[in-house]
Amino acid sequence: MRWLDLEGGPHPGHLDAQGPIQAARIRGCRRARAGVTRVADRTVLGVFELKKTFKKPFSGKKVEAVRGISFEAFEGEIFGFLGPNGAGKTTTLKMLTGLIRPTGGRASILGEAAPSPEAMNRVGLLPANPYIYPYLTPREFVSLCGRLSGVSGAALPKRVEAVIERVGMSEAIDRPARNLSKGMLQRTGLAAALVHEPELLILDEPMSGLDPVGRKEVRDLIIEERRRGRAVFFSSHILSDVEMLCDRVCILRAGTVVLKGTIRELVGGEARSAEITLDKVSDALAEDLRTKGHELRALGSAHVLEVSGDDAVHEVLTAALAAGAHVSSVIPKRETLEQIFVRRAL
How are strands ordered across the β-sheet holding 200-204? Predict the structure, then answer.
C-alpha cells in the first residue's frame, strides 16, 4: 500500500498526527460503491477477538495494548467507544484504519475485510488531532480530500461548500489553516471526513477543542447523520455527550471490554438507591435513623435521606411509618453513564 507523502506532512503511522489526507489515501483514489451490498444483519463494523501486543524498544518486554476485544456497530446507530487514557481506544482505531497491524483477530467494515481499500473507501475518518497543512485554507484542504476520495467535476466545489457550511466554517472558508483556532481545525477535519458522503463515520474525540455552541452543533450533525441511515462510531471523554447521543456503547479498561450494551440497558436498569422524603419526623425517629447509619438532610420542614439497597429502603420506611412520620416520596436513583464509567473503567 502506498501512502500519500506531501512535503511537510506528518508520518501517517500516527493516528494522533495523521490528517484526513492520509485517511483519504487509505480509502483509495476511487470510490467503489457500485455493486456493494450490506451484510444481512446490518453490521457496518465488526471486531472479533482483536489483539495488539507491542514490544518495548530496549527491554523487548511485551505489552498487551488490546486483549481480544469484540463488538459490533450497526447501520443507522451511534456507537460510543469509551475508556480511560491507555485503555486501548486509539490503538483499536489504528488497527481498524490500517495504520498498524493487529497481532490477532480480525475486523470487518461494511461487509469487507478491514482495512481493505474497498472498505475504507466508504469510511469517513476524523483523527483525534487532525493535521491540516498550514498554508491551505479549509476550502482547499477539503477539496483536496474530496478529490482523493473520488469526488470530482462540478459536484466537488458545491459539495465542499455544503459540508463546510454544515460544520459552521463558512466565514473562515478561505482563511489559511495557520490562522485557525483548534476548534476551527477540528471542524475542518470533520468537513473533510464528510465530503465524500461516507456510510460509516469514525470520529476520535470529535468534540475536542469545541466550545459549548460548537459541541451542540457537532452533536446535531451526528444525529443528522444517523437520520440519514449512516453509522457513527466515536470515542469521547465527554460522557454527558455520549449518554445523550449514543444508542450503544463499549467501555474498555486495560485493553479489555468491561461493559457493552445499549444506553437504556446500562443506565435504565434496576435502581441502585432511592431518595426518601419524610415529613413529621420526630427527634426519636431521626436519632434512630442516624444510629442505623442513615444521614438526614433538612429540606424545609421535611427530611431527605438517600438509601442504598432494597433492604435498607424497607427498613427506613417501616421505621418511619411505625413512628408516625409521613412518607412524601420515594424516588429511585439510577446511575448515570459517568458513574458507571467511574465504577467499571477506573
Answer: 123-126, 200-204, 231-235, 78-82, 248-253, 256-262
